[in-house]
Amino acid sequence: MTAALRPAPTGAEMAAHPEIPDRPGQGPSGHIPVLARELVDLIGPQPGETVIDCTFGAGGHARLVAERIGPEGTLIAIDRDPVARARFQEFQSLDLCRTAFITEEFSLALKSLQNEGIRASALYMDLGMSSLQVDAAERGFSYSHDAPLDMRMDPRQSLTAEVILNTWSAQQLARMLRELGEEKYSVGISRQIVARRPLESTSDLVDAIKAGMPAAARFGSGHPARRSFQALRIAVNGEMEAIDAALPIAWDTLETGGRMAVISFHSLEDRRIKRFFNDLATGCTCPPELPVCVCGHEPEAEILTRKPISADDDEIGVNPRARSARLRGAIKVSAGEEAR
């Protein structure tokens, strides 16, 4: 494993940490995670279990999980953003459980853990941006601040938003905006981006987006740049490819009886999660006219959320980011055809 486990101290030693926040689900830095109680109740971590947090962020979900698994449990945290390591160190100082941290894109980190023979009783993902990224204006994730066109979750990678905007063709840009942002004005926006090159800041991009939309569309619900910024962020970070790669590896990393939960924030993510769990939960795939099953396919999963869990009005009032969150989960009932 990339990081060594740190044992938790006794209960008396844990009581010496008054910095643990009072708000349920709140991370060590005051961050309030989305659907925190719902996620933890869904995966049901038990004392002494090993749990993998694939998207550590500010550690809000991790704190609740750590409280459940206790000093004998192990929480392995993953985040591709090196900034999250500082928040992990805050979380680790609470000494709630044994811990380890891996700075890597989650599909690669999970594969490394699997190769080392590590299996988890529960695993979860909180997709999309973390508050650490949105709140750091200089990283260019937000259309509300003038900043460089960066948008990298992992600052070690070379591809940035500026590279995409200033080198891709109008056709490539339009396809990205349409497929990853579901932006209906993708053609007009892409033409404006190309015409205004070189773009150097998020303000330049917002101006190009507005110029590429009909006047009436600029004053609709939400910021006119929201969908385009989403599409560009997803493209820069290869988010859809990372999710597609990580889901089967994450499932294979679970023990039989293990629980997996995923929080998504837009339809592109949610459709993938729903399809993935549904495919695992499908039994016999033989044509209905056959008198007996010949495919031998048995369900690997039992779906825990027939409909996705959404935030209630109280949570949305405190944390508006929760408005678009959707939580899905499943339990692993068999290891499938391969020995895993």
Describe this structure in words.
The longest helix has 15 residues, at 239-253. The chain has helices spanning 11-14, 36-43, 60-69, 83-92, 106-115, 131-135, 161-167, 170-181, 186-195, 202-211, 226-237, 239-253, 267-281, 313-318; strands spanning 50-53, 74-78, 98-102, 120-126, 254-264, 301-303, 326-332. Helix 8 packs across helix 11 (226-237). It contains 14 helices and 7 strands. It has 340 residues and is of the alpha/beta class. Helix 4 links the parallel strand 2 (74-78) and strand 3 (98-102). A 7-stranded mixed sheet has the order 3-2-1-4-5-7-6, with helices on both faces. The relative contact order is 0.12. The model is unreliable at 6-29 (pLDDT under 50). Helices cover 39% and strands 12% of the residues. It is globular. The protein has 2 domains: 11-132 and 240-332, Vaccinia Virus protein VP39 (Rossmann fold); 136-238, Orthogonal Bundle (DNA polymerase, domain 1), CATH 1.10.150.170.
Could you describe the largest sheet, including whether it forms a barrel? 7 strands, mixed
What's the N-to-C terminus distance?
19 Å
Shape: globular
How many domains? The number is 2
Architecture of the largest domain, CATH level 2?
3-Layer(aba) Sandwich
| Widest sheet, order of strands | 3-2-1-4-5-7-6
Over all CA atoms, what is the radius of gyration? 21 Å
The secondary structure category is alpha/beta
CATH topology group of the largest domain: Rossmann fold
Overall strand count: 7
Number of helical segments with 4 or more residues: 14
- The average pLDDT is 88
Unreliable stretches covering 5 or more consecutive residues? 6-29
The CATH class designation of the largest domain is: Alpha Beta
> Roughly what fraction of the amino acids lie in strands?
5-15%
How helical, in percent, are the residues?
A: 25-40%
CATH superfamily of the largest domain: Vaccinia Virus protein VP39
